[in-house]
Design a protein that fits this description.
Length: 116
């Protein structure tokens, strides 16, 4: 879930090149819609913390925890105001990627979360 088209495209390309199937949403409501379709098995949601729309990444993760608790969440953000986003990710037992991140960091974090 990423509103920046450049970050979205690079992340998708990296993941698909490594065998992952990627569904893309620009904001939380689009991600919730994808989750509700029952057409896909979703293992992990990679979400920006700050994005347009009614819900931010933390609120999306709360919705996922309440409705689809088997889905894991990885937060990403370029804004780490006093590390509150990182602290919230840790509190929720979710991973955090600071933007900009490398392909290696993305893949390692994803693998770590999937293996939990």
């Amino acid at each position: 879930v990423e509103d920046d088209k450049t970050v979205q495209a690079m992340t998708r390309k990296t993941l698909e090149m490594h065998g992952y199937t990627v569904l893309v949403a620009d904001e939380a409501s689009g991600a919730i819609e994808l989750c509700g379709r029952n057409e896909y098995t979703i293992d992990v949601i990679l979400t920006d913390v700050i994005m347009p729309g009614e819900k931010n990444g933390f609120e999306l993760a709360d919705w996922v925890a309440d409705n689809l608790p088997d889905i894991k969440v990885i937060y990403m953000s370029g804004y780490t105001d006093g590390a509150s986003a990182i602290e919230e990710a840790i509190r929720q037992n979710n991973a955090f990627l600071k933007k900009p991140f490398s392909a290696k960091a993305l893949l390692e974090t994803l693998r770590e979360v999937c293996d939990r």
